[in-house]
Amino acid sequence: MQKISRKDPKSSFNISNEDAFYIVGFVDGEGSFNISFKIRKDYIHKIQVYPSFNISQKEKRILGWIHEILDCGTIRNRGDGVYYYEVHSLKDLVEKVIPFFQKYKLKTKKRKSFLVFTKIVMFIYLKKELSFEDIQKIYLLREQIRVGRKRKYSLIDLRRIWKSSETIRQTELHK
Which among 38, 43, 61, 166 has the fewest CB atoms less than 10 Å away? Predict the structure, then answer.
């Protein structure tokens, strides 16, 4: 069994290939890479782009093991007997989650979701501030990821929220 050393500059994961591929298979079946838009009163333009990697599972122990391997994120009890492992820190997504799944490739249609997710996360990570054009670009990229439910906000909703925050800001500037 080959171990990947912490000295390997391309990897900070001290894990056997067997364990790494187990995690990949587990995430292929139970994980998700999400980009959400949240409305936040404490944001200048009221819109937060919220990337997250998560896994829901009844067995907390396996989530704890994955949490330990990736060395980031949190585990919560949803209250219905299901535990939820989530990573949403941009820094942890860029430095830990994305490199792991770049090294150990997903095999299902989730791979496409991961690739789109990676593009969006890297785009956000490299920007200091997002314009509405950036929000629109992220929204359209995210549309390449199929989900089994209706999205909470349409692009029209986001534009309306953005414009209303601009109106408020301009009004405040002229006081």
Answer: 61
Q: Is residue 116 part of a domain?
A: yes
Residue 20 to residue 50: CA distance in whole angstroms: 26
pLDDT tens-digit series, residues 69-110:
999 999 999 989 999 999 999 999 999 999 999 999 999 999
**Domain range spanning residue 91?**
17-173
CATH of the domain at 39: 3.10.28.10
Kindly list the distances between the CA atom of residue 82 and the CA atoms of 13, 55, 118, 175, in Å, as whole numbers in the listed order. Answer: 27, 10, 27, 51
Instruction: Quote the DSSP letter at residue 93.
Output: I
**Phi and psi, residue 76, nearest 5°:** -130, 155
pLDDT tens-place string over residues 115-135: 999 999 999 999 988 999 999
Q: In the predicted model, what is the mean pLDDT of the chain?
A: 86
Any domain includes 6: no
- At a CB cut-off of 8 Å and minimum separation 6, what does 170 contact? none
